[in-house]
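Fig. S4 source data, part A: sequence.
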Amino acid sequence: MHNGDGLQAAHAMRPRRRRRALLLIGALVIVALVLVAIEVTRRTLAEQQDARTDPAFYALPTPLPRGDPGEIIRIAPIESAPVGTSAWRVIYHSRDQAGADIPVSGVVIVPDGPAPDGGRTIVSWGHPTTGAATRCAPSLGMDPFEYIEGMHELLAEGYAIAATDYPGLGVEGASSYLLGIPESNSVLDIVRAARRIDGAGVSDRVVLWGHSQGGQAVLFAAERAAEYAHELTIEGVAVAAPAANLNALMTDDIVNLSGVTIASFAIPAYEAAYAEQYGSETITDVLTPAGLSATPDMAALCLLTQNAQIHAIADPLVGRYVRSDPATTEPWQTMLQENSAGNTPLRVPVFVGQGEADELVLPSATEGYVKLLCTQNTEVTFHRYPDVTHGLAAYAALPDLLLWLPTLGGSRASADGCG
């Protein structure tokens, strides 16, 4: 064969090879899409089955037999767990504001495969506000993992995840909305429950991670863990746009729709928790007659699925929901202070992420909390995110959070958030 003939043959082969390569790539894409469709179908069918069985799972006998904090009352595998993971719905024993035994629900999810020596570090997640009514529990959603921000990334890094609903959500009971003690108890007790699950491989090493309301819950958990759950090793606590200073939150937001909504969720919870101490009428006296009348209807709605109904009630009440700012009116001033983070110094590293476009938890409030941590000699890592709003704060913080997590548990550098 002449060289020219060989070159012509080679040129003729290249288009065929390209076509074969493109066909192979196309076939792989089709296979991938088919696998994705199969996985979506599997999870959807499993979620629908879960929804049919949920009512029976969450219905508990009365009276409930007593149990130690974290002792499992009921557990069931979640068939709709993402591929490569195992997950369970759990109902477990916890403690309320007064120390009484209560049931709380939540979910636990772990990567498949053997746990490392010593077990998996577990991230206990505190979710942002979903509402204060029982049916607003994240674990009752069609996708019970939907509101675990950073779940896939954390599982990929080998962490186990525990996500409480908080008392009063999922399982019938008194609301714990923005009440630091019962919220934090539930955050710690679901870790205890996770450690009891055969095959979960969960260690005593804990990282606390929360957003908004969940930020308040996990900060409280970090403050109280040594006393309440001394067998757990809290390696650090991370928060995004935390509701850390409730007095500042109420002052900043009570003049707008968000503040009216937050207050309508909090007032029934605080009334139930503090009625014996202050009296129900003293607690609700901060409300106008219109606010008092509307609060039960708003408190019965779920934030993320019933926004239109909440707006219909709350919009006309903006500016006339309360008689005065609860943050400066007793007994609310004291109650809010008691349930704000920072009353007990933290002795574990703290990660804080804050969006600078946040109009719910204002940057100034978070900056004030960070300054408080610095005066208490807490090690703080503080990140600000330009143009990030409240709802996106946790996602914006994830890259920095994933860099911060591996630094925990060893020798520590000085804090870089207090400069």
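Fig. S4 source data, part B ends here. The chain has two domains: 60-245+340-407, 247-337.
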